[in-house]
Design a protein that fits this description.
heterodimer; A: 347 residues; alpha+beta; Rossmann fold; OB fold (Dihydrolipoamide Acetyltransferase, E2P); 2 domains; 5-stranded antiparallel beta sheet; 8 helices; elongated; B: 250 residues; mainly alpha; MetI-like fold; 12 helices; 2% strand; globular
Chain lengths: 347, 250
């Protein structure tokens, strides 16, 4: 079953192509996150799915129906806009009921659904308010209720939390996910914020220059990135140049051998990627360990950041709980990791 | 108000609004006289009592009808035009075209209309006058409406379409309500000056048809009854206060 399928979608404005051949499947009930920096094509793709921009080629299939050439109002898709786009001349309830009236719901059904939606977003009793009388968080919930009320086949969310104060964001994010789950909504969320994507998504599609660099669960993208770009986009990463010796051993540039299955033929040049969060400080030499020197300590309250320069010249920063013994700056130490914590990149 | 010199604004209002109004009041309370100026200051109700003549009521009703017709015609023609201008790729170009006639003199334009309408055998009819009124006052409706429509957030129309509204429904529920203050401003800006319009009915209209503007003109220049003319002018001013207040209600 697929709720949404994109097939080789190419799109852009004028002569410029910002989405260059995207294939994508979103499953029913799934929260799928399109992650990418500015100019990666994520917003263009969103506009194509909503129907505000016609792709220059490719197909958009919604619940088995080809909607590529349909106008926005003919698609059963609603969008939670970044700035909410609430209708300022209508009350809260008229905003929420707008999609229901356009779908010619019966008056009694609208009243029933309206009450349900107001309860869902905890705005009971505020139905008669004007939009301008609501706080930012309340407006976000009205916009969400307005999108969910007509039970769309797909909900698009365009940076839904970016207009909120940072203090409000985490709580609203949890609230948003809980609401989407409770309604079983299929959602496609666009964001540039990797933490948001990792926390919210069932699966992430990372866009790079109009193409999907990698698609998978947050864990898959974080732990087993397919390229340096993906590894770097999802978090801090230590990249070490290496050459494959045989099936289980890599030679690092400084001559150290590490255990690592690469699946690449002997002699291939690859990159060993390590998450600093998974690197430990060690007392002595051993398997999968590298020598280094402590160049600095930064106290950060609950944790302490240890800057280390490896013998090969690479520098990295390790975050350790503050209560652990602290190495002194200038001292020689070893860093080590489990083979399962590293991965080999060929791109 | 945060103007640097508010007293300048007050001085302007005093010199160009308050003083003429006071003079008009003084003249209205005077009595007609032979001489220059043709009135003698007094405290007389003669001029104001002259307003009771049913002839003036006819003129008032005639002018109200013309104002209403003109503003509605302007709205009917101007609203779709404005929508087209705002949605076009080059709104500035079309607005410029709209204002081109204003670069030639008002009387010259009306003379051109006389020639044209005479050819069509409709000169000096109500139709001719309406054509003249609409052609002269249409920009007064389009300009405020355009500035209102251009300020609309295009995202709201997109959001409505996204929620399932057809283009007609988007217009009905989003575009139209948002444009209403512009409609009010435009209609008032046409309605008010047309009420007192003298030149267009005189040059294009039916010579027998009475309008308020004509009656004021006749009282001033034909009958030389300045107190009556001043009273008529004040009456027109009072009548036009409510529509002008509509402009402030935003």
């Amino acid at each position: 079953m697929t709720a949404l399928a994109l097939e080789a979608v190419v799109a852009g404005y004028g002569a410029g192509i910002t989405v260059n051949g995207v294939d994508l499947v979103v499953h029913p009930g799934e929260i799928f996150c399109l992650l990418g920096g500015s100019g990666s094509g994520k917003t263009t793709l969103l506009r194509c799915i909503a129907g505000f921009l016609a792709p220059s080629s490719g197909r958009i299939v919604l619940d088995g129906r080809d909607v590529t050439r349909l106008a926005p109002h003919q698609r059963d898709v609603t969008t939670l806009f970044q700035s909410y786009a609430l209708f300022p001349h209508m009350s809260v309830q008229d905003n929420i009921a707008f999609g229901l009236r356009r779908r010619r719901w019966k008056r009694a059904d609208i009243a029933c659904r309206l009450a349900e939606m107001l309860a869902l977003v905890r705005l009971q009793g505020l139905g008669d308010r004007r939009i301008s009388q609501l706080s930012g968080g309340q407006q976000q919930r009205v916009a969400l209720a307005r999108c969910l009320a007509p039970k769309p086949r797909l909900l698009l969310l365009d940076e839904p939390l970016s207009a909120l104060d940072p203090e409000l964001r985490a709580a609203t994010r949890a609230d948003l996910v809980a609401t989407l789950r409770s309604q079983g909504t299929t959602a496609l969320l666009v964001t540039h914020d990797r933490a948001e994507a990792l926390a919210v998504a069932d699966r992430i599609g990372l866009l790079q220059a109009g193409r999907l660099a990698q698609t998978g669960t947050p864990e898959a993208l974080f732990e087993r990135p397919s390229s340096r770009f993906v590894a770097g986009f999802l978090g801090d990463v230590v990249l070490l140049d290496a050459t494959v010796r045989d099936s289980g051993i890599l030679d690092l540039a400084d001559g150290t051998a590490v255990e690592m299955a690469s699946g690449q033929p002997a002699g291939s040049r690859v990159t060993l990627a390590l998450r600093p969060e998974r690197i430990r400080l060690e007392d002595g030499a051993g398997a999968n360990r590298l020598a280094g020197e402590v160049t600095g300590l930064t106290y950060a309250g609950a944790s302490i950041e240890v800057s280390v320069r490896l013998a090969c010249g690479t520098t990295l920063t390790l975050v350790r709980p503050a209560e652990l013994p602290r190495p002194s700056p200038g001292s020689s130490i070893w860093v080590g990791w489990d083979a399962s914590a590293a991965c080999v990149l060929t791109a | 108000m945060s103007f640097g010199r508010p007293w300048l604004a007050w001085l302007w209002l005093l010199g160009f609004v308050a003083a003429p109004l006071v003079m008009l009041g003084v003249v209205a309370l005077s009595v007609p006289a032979d001489g220059i100026p043709p009135f003698r200051p007094a405290v007389s109700m003669e001029g104001l009592e002259g307003l009771a003549d049913p002839l003036f009521l006819d003129g008032l009703i005639g002018s109200l009808r013309i104002s209403l017709t003109t503003s509605m015609l302007c709205l009917l023609i101007g609203y779709p035009m404005t929508l087209g201008i705002v949605r076009s790729k080059r709104p500035a170009f079309w607005l410029g075209l709209l204002l081109v006639p204003f670069w030639s003199g008002f009387l010259m334009r009306l003379t051109a209309w006389t020639l044209l309408l005479r050819e069509l055998n409709v000169l000096h009819t109500e139709l001719a006058m309406q054509i003249g009124m609409v052609s002269c006052y249409l920009p007064f409706l389009i300009l405020p409406l355009q500035s209102r429509m251009a300020a609309a957030d295009p995202l709201l129309a997109q959001a409505a379409a996204d929620l399932g509204a057809s283009p007609f429904r988007v217009f009905l529920h989003i575009t139209l309500p948002h444009s209403l203050p512009g409609v009010v401003a435009g209609v008032v800006l046409v309605f008010v000056p047309v009420m007192g319009e003298y030149v267009i009915p005189e040059l294009l209209g039916d010579p027998g048809a009475q309008t308020f503007g004509r009656m004021i003109w006749d009282a001033f220049f034909s009958e030389r009854d300045w107190p009556l003319a001043a009273s008529l002018s004040l009456a027109l001013l009072v009548i036009l206060v409510p529509p002008a207040l509509l402009l402030r209600r935003r």
